[in-house]
């Protein structure tokens, strides 16, 4: 795992030229953007039952506010918190463009370890691409649950360790990495920038953590179905995308073992 300072620098870099928002753009690089767009679509679908005008939504780890337009256009109040001030500034601009008269918009910097809102404050809390960068997941989920109203909704996304691509990556990544290193050495090339590693979760583990914090599972979605697993998706990215788009038409148990990411929806019960 990286330190909190390293995570902050990583996302500050993404915010400099608003690269984070561009990852969700439909007219961007289809290969690079697919999983981000798929995640947002899954979350919008899972959030739909909680859409009640005037309801409050906390977007914890809001990034550049990619969920703000959907929340605000549905008539909900939007609260966003992120560790990166650069991200928050972009989110504030996005939210201000979408907010209508009478809607509440609050953006601030902060840490999921200590959310600066009282108990049972929000109707809905979402945390997308957040838990995988944290050292203390239990404490973070405890905070997400604490600020959610009884009967309120919590939606969390995580990368999945229980998928075919995760298995093949563990098996073949050392081989591919060493081969690439040897080729670079022969060509006199420089070492590329390191990959920003994060933890992965078994979907059942995420469910168990939320249940342990007074929540009950009420929905789920799997996305980014990598049928052509590593290293083939890396060698043939365009073909991998086409196969993935075909497979994602079928939301059933056959494709779920190939999904690299998971979204869970939970209701706070007590």
Structural features, described:
With 270 residues, this protein is α/β, with parallel strands linked by helices. It contains ten helices and seven strands. Helix 1 (4-16) crosses helix 5. The two termini are 32 Å apart.
Spell out the helices and strands N to C.
HHHEHEHEEHEHHEHHE
Strand order of the largest sheet: 3-2-1-4-5-7-6
Number of helices: 10
Mean pLDDT: 89
Beta-strand residue fraction: 15-25%
Q: How large, in whole angstroms, is the Cα Rg? A: 19 Å
What's the β-strand tally? Answer: 7
Which shape, going by the Cα principal axes? globular
* Low-pLDDT ranges: none
Major β-sheet, in short?
Answer: 7 strands, mixed
Q: Ends: how far apart? A: 32 Å
What helical percentage do the residues reach?
40-55%
By secondary-structure content and strand pairing, the structural class works out as alpha/beta
Short précis:
The protein is 42% helix and 21% strand. The chain is α/β, with parallel strands linked by helices.
Topology summary:
Elements lengths: L3 H13 L2 H4 L7 H18 L8 E5 L7 H6 L3 E6 L2 H14 L6 E5 L12 E7 L8 H10 L1 E12 L4 H24 L15 H9 L3 E11 L6 H4 L1 H11 L11 E10 L2
Parallel strand pairs: 1-2, 1-4, 2-3, 4-5
Antiparallel strand pairs: 5-7, 6-7
Helix pairs in contact: 1-5
Q: Which key features would you list for this structure?
A:
270 residues; alpha/beta; seven-stranded mixed β-sheet; globular
